[in-house]
Amino acid sequence: MVPALSAGHQEFGGAGTVALVTGASSGIGEGTALALAALGARVTVVARRADRLDALVGKIESTGGHALAVSADITDEGQAHASVARTVETYGRVDTVVANAGVMILGPITGADTTDWRRMIELNTLGLMYTAHAAAPHLLEAAADGPRKDTPLVLVSSIPGRVLLVRPTEQQD
Known about the structure:
Elements: E1 18-22, H1 27-38, E2 42-47, H2 50-62, E3 67-71, H3 77-91, E4 96-99, H4 114-145, E5 153-155
Parallel strand pairs: 1-2, 1-4, 2-3, 4-5
Helix pairs in contact: 3-4
């Protein structure tokens, strides 16, 4: 799946720009990275699954694009900052950030493993915050240097609902 980015979406990337996409090993993140690369952006792809990132870099480079794979767990603030730092060290800047890493754990409340809930909140909320915090100074610098005077920071997140339906076995009068 490739999001509908076209030449009219140059604010998200284009020749000479640098984008960082978290959660890039599959789904929306992978599609976004491919779309940004197709617009001409150099793309850093970030996720935990290095093998999938390497395959994505191969896809991007096979079409003439430039990409860097960074295996990281952005629920670790240091790794989120290191991902941004590696992008800036490699490409000299970052112009666009799509913080997309997330997980949705479905299931009933009863019997649920609450460590799964913690992981979901850490990734879907803190991971986005850590990425935004690490990238903000670089995005502000890119905006000051750029012709538009702004840069996109896209935060993709969701928190799935859990439902507990209480159905008594007996009617209470």
